[in-house]
Amino acid sequence: MKRAVSILFLLLSCGIFSAVYFFNLRPQPPETTQNNLPQIELSPRLSNEEFQAEHLKLRTVADAKGLQAAFETLKSDMAQDEKVLNSCHELLHVFGRSMFEKYGNFTEAVRYQDEVCVSGYIHGVLEGYLAVEPRIDVALKEVCTDTEPGTYRRTSCYHGVGHALMFYSQNNLPLSLEKCDLYRDPTDNSDCYSGAYMENFNMDQKEHLSTYLDPSRPLYPCTVNTKNLDACYAYAPLYFLGLHKDDYSGALAVCDSADKAYRASCYFGVGFQYVRRHLKDISSVQAVCDASTAARASCISGAAYYYLSYHLSKDKTRTMCSTLNLEDAATCTEAVDTFSNLLKDFK
After folding, report:
1. Residue 66 dihedral angles phi and psi, to the nearest 5°
2. I need a labelling partner for 188 at 20 to 30 A (CA). Which of 196, 261, 326, 345 fits?
């Protein structure tokens, strides 16, 4: 009965990160985070010069042949160059901003869009739009209204608004969260918060780092904020792993120190970040997540969610799940089913 109630809660709850709650309902053994993970090679990413060159290439194709051709070029480059694959979300943020500058109009800039690379393009367009829109509160109420509730596109759009608010405010996290509170729908509000938190913890920012970070307290500001903390803790590992170069055992240990109510969200974030950094080879995700019996289920579910969000394919993600050991494969598949029920446009 408790299991059935928890699933019903998920289907009615506010925001995708509340799904982590489901994986934390099961009895958990004591924390047993290990520090003997195998050495995991860092995934290659574009250098600053390569990043700028790839952006210029996409911009040139878009100017000559249109946005669809630019996305096709990006997908071809991603298939051929792992560095482009691993940098594509941030690249599309920048490309989206440049396309808004080109069109000067939000509607035109998103007339053709592609959810590739976890919807980085719409996030960038929103950043460009809110940066120049003088009627910020009006603009916030107008964007994303044409997206269908209960879809990944809607979740991604409001998540992108959170990113855009941080760009607009020069990473003023309290102001960004205050603006997110203009959204009365709890799901839209939570998704906006998650985008702002993600941008706050992002160590790959090209323009400026947030001042709402503290290397001596890697879970800050989650430890002092009071709202939508599941989203905050889910993205906290992004900051720690940026500081400590993919030290996943260290990230799990930091999550062990979180308030017990939010540890599952933090563990979820470790799995999410692992797959984000190792899209070409996720074979070590078991070693990362299974190093902590307390973290295992939430960490695997985070890995499944990023893979599902990236590929937008239930079947492809279930195939990935099937490569894991029996227990992890069952957890992974269950996560895919849960997230697919929450967001109905996964194919």
Report:
1. 105, 170
2. 261
